[in-house]
Amino acid sequence: MTLPERPLFGAAYYHEYQPYQRLEEDFSLMAAANFSLIRVGESVWSTWEPSDGYFDLDWLEPVLNQAHAHGISVIIGTPTYAVPPWLRTRYPETSADRKTGQPIPYGHRQDVDFTHPAFRFFAERLIRKIVLRYRGHPAVIGWQLDNEPGNELLHNHAVFLGFVERLIKKYGTVDALSDQWGLTYWSHRISEWGELWAPDGNTVPAYDLEWRRYQAELTTEFINWQASLVRELTEPEQFVTTCISLPRPAIEAVALARGLDVTATNLYYPMQDALAMPTAETRQTGQRQQWMPTYGTWRLYQLADASRGVRQERFLVTETNARAVGDAHVNYPAFPGQWRQAAWALVARGARAVEYWHWHTLHFGHETFWGGVLGHSLEPGRCYEEIARIGKELKKAAPRLAGYQPDADVMMLSSAPSKWAMEFQPPLAVEGTARPDPRSYDRTFDAFYRALFDVGTQVSICTPQQLPADPIEMASRWPILVVPAFYIAREPELLYLKEYAEAGGHLVLGFKSGYADENARPRSTVMPGVLRSVVGASYDEFTNIPSPVNVTAEAGFACDDGAMATAWADGLVLEGATVLARYDHPFYGRWPAITTNRAGSGRVTYVGTLPNPCLGVALGRWIRETSLPPDPWKRRPASVSVTSGRVGDGTRLWFVSNWAWEAVRVSAPVAGRDVLSDAEFAAGTDLDLGPWDVRVIEEH
Length: 700
Description:
The protein is an alpha/beta fold. The chain has 18 helices and 31 strands.
């Protein structure tokens, strides 16, 4: 399998949805916009197979022929995520149960039990026919398996029986399971496997954690099943992938992508004022949808860094914003320049393909107002013109992007089990309420990522399984390791963190880290357990903070007015650590909010609260100044972000963006060449950036 080295650029294309015949016109417009990639076919099982056993495979050939004639490559999707009515009608047992005994009503998508043998039979039959029909077409470079898998937790009876089988293999006996899960509580001990209850009313944290692991394994198995099937049939130079939507409830992305050839993600973000820097602290209520609850330029970069972290390599963006994204009441197309900024931000953080969803805005269906590159008029407009400019720039820059790899100063540790456990028993309340917040893990992780981004730090993201085996190697490669809310942690993982710090790394530890073992059982020791000696502080008490509390700085730590602790406070007791910040409160003030401690040849900084953005900036600045070389671009306007990476010959590229309406000037600390304009400049030259503008600079 080989991926083209050039940046791929394009959109999902659905000729079968067009209201009239316009194939040649569409591809002429794509070619004029320098498209090099389209994605097709993943949503229309009922077009491929209108009725049971009757196949129409030829409808796609004119699309592929036009693509090839215009020099555009194609990814074909297997259409298994949206089943046709005939399959549900004839085989109702294939429907997914969202709750035990309650099938999901037909009419949406991803409503099938993909583990069911009948579904697998029909899915395999169709996949084989599609792949055999088009594997030899010269336009086809890859196959997308399913679409955004892991959307549902399956509660079907056969799925539950498989869960019980998994538990038997893992625990061996019912006594071992009862002991590990703590089923003595509330008389939940079982004496035989048939007594295990369905998950719907479960209150046992260990049960839920195993259930979520199992659901993620089902999704991984399903995609691996498709991958092995397609690989058996396809050409060796064609890749297989699936488009991952981060997050989905039944997915563990790293495990899922391990059996694929390349990571592909669907990456959406709020636009307009939500992309302003500094981030406006208004709620942006119109754009804060359930599936897109956060906003800010930092979020765009975080999604890209998370995508790269799935396989620790560059990735494909198979869907991203064209016009407005969301339902009919959510219409926020980008300000002029924002599509261009976002595309270059994705490339800067490792995207080797940027594909918009989708080419034309639909005239029917659930996503009628999810905007494409072309609007309902199907005439080129502002969106098309800006995206065409991006295509032209990517084509021009392609020779200088060969072998590109993003830079990163800091590694952040991400933990899916911790996220699942904190969804089941959220430690934080929804802001301004007494309701539990199932986004507790995400809020905590986001606060630390944003703190690093806001001070210009570049981040990589990994899971515990992706860390180098040797903590000494880790410390030499990554001077800073940030670990927020690592709630579900095995003892060897905590010892690794301890050894990392002692070997010279700067470990930044968030609250709740190491609190529970792999069965979600709180450890029976004073926290932070095995990390206590390197933290230089301990706690046996904690509290929620119902409203933000001001903090005061100590020991050379500096923070501006407005720096606040929110949501949580660990009752830290000093055991040698130095206080960096303390709560300004008659009760919480007895405890430090942030401490730091020398550990061997390294350092551990402990953050016992959820910092608000202002405190996050102070924390990020202190971490950076303590453990990283000076930022050469430090003197820049607040609306400007700077990221970087190196190409194959070792040359560094800088991506400088102005996320505001006001034009700015930035003094370049390096000599270089503007990749897009070819202008040469000396170090110290003032670079002009217009509103919502970006410059790509090749350092000399």
